[in-house]
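Q: Could you fold this chain for me?
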Amino acid sequence: VACADFPVILTALNSAVILTSSTDSRKVNLSEFFTGNRGTVRKKTELLAKILIPLKNEKSAAAFEKFQRRAASSLAVVSVAVHLELENNICKKSQIVLGAVSPIPLIAEKTCTFLSGREISPAAVDKAAVIAQSEAKPITDVRASADYRRELVGVLLKRALRKAVNRINKKNRI
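A: Sure. Below is the predicted structure, expressed as structure tokens.
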């Protein structure tokens, strides 16, 4: 799960899943679905029946950035998914999720709090990257060192934030 793309992306989009058993169904937000490396809250008697992705408005956009060692490898060394809602370039809502830097998709809560109510300026993007780097909990393994992964978090977050802002600004042109 840690280096998979879709859990990171869907968590950033505030998605949920429907888990169904022979006797019951329940809705679980993706932010609460993963419990650890290859672990989820799904019971042995349940199937994942649906993935619910909320509709977004025209003042919002998402972006995903991923670094992998080779084009042929789909495993992320680090990934970042961003969902922003802006009004006059002021952040109304954000969801930033980091992949491959913890056992589960990591919601960068301090980074989101920092961006809330703030103009998304180059200085704010730089500061958000530093905060996200401090929130990452990477390990060293055969694909990258913890320090390298932490550095990548900053680089990829800056790219994703810029991409999401550009997408919102293009939608709102007259």
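A (continued): The chain has a mean pLDDT of 93.
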